[in-house]
Amino acid sequence: MDARGRSTCAGPASRRCSPVRVWAAGLLGSLSADRRLDVLLVLDELVTNAHAHTLGPTWVRLTEQPRPCLVVVEADDLSHGWPVVRARGGTAPHGRGMQLVDRLADEWGVHDNLDGKTVWARLGWSGEGVRRR
After folding, report:
1. C-alpha dist (Å) from residue 72 to 11, 14, 45, 64, 75
2. Pairing of strands 107-113, 116-125
3. Would you list the DSSP string of 1-48?
4. CA-based R_g, the chain, Å
C-alpha cells in the first residue's frame, strides 16, 4: 500500500483508525482475532515509528502464508536511521514501540535501500494459536 501521507491512528486516545489499519485488517480476515491484533499492533508501531522519526512511511506491505501461519509486515521510509529497542523502564511517555515489536514478532530487522530503508517484522504461529517464539 502506498502509505505516503497516511498514519495508522489519529492520536493516542482516538478510536478512529486510518486507511492503513483498515486496509491491513481487511487483508487479515483469515486470522483469529488475537493473531490479527498482534499483526495490527506491530503494523501500528512500524508506521508510527516512521512518522515519529522520519518523513513518514512511503510503502507498507503485508505478506501472509497460511501454512505454517506466518505474516510479514514491512514499512518503507526515506531515512537511513535504524530503529532502536530502548531499555525497559524509565518514565518517558514515548519510546516503547520497538519494545512491543521486539516482544510480539518472532524476529524483526532492517534492510537498507538506495532511498531509505525497510523495517520488517515476522510473526508466526505453530498451530492452535501458539506463538512460535
Report:
1. 25, 26, 14, 7, 10
2. antiparallel
3. -B-TT--SBS-TT---B-HHHHHHHHHTTTS-HHHHHHHHHHHHHHHH
4. 14
Cell readout for 113 is 535501500
Please give the Cα distance from 128 to 69 (Å, whole number): 10
Q: How far is CA 121 from CA 12, 48, 81, in A?
A: 22, 14, 17
Return the SS3 of 74.
strand
Q: What is the pLDDT along the chain (133 residues), one digit of tens a residue?
A: 765 555 454 444 334 457 888 889 989 988 999 999 999 999 999 998 998 888 888 899 999 888 788 999 999 999 999 998 887 776 766 768 899 999 999 999 999 999 999 999 999 987 654 444 5
**Distances 34 to 31, 49, 120 between C-alpha atoms, Å:** 8, 23, 20
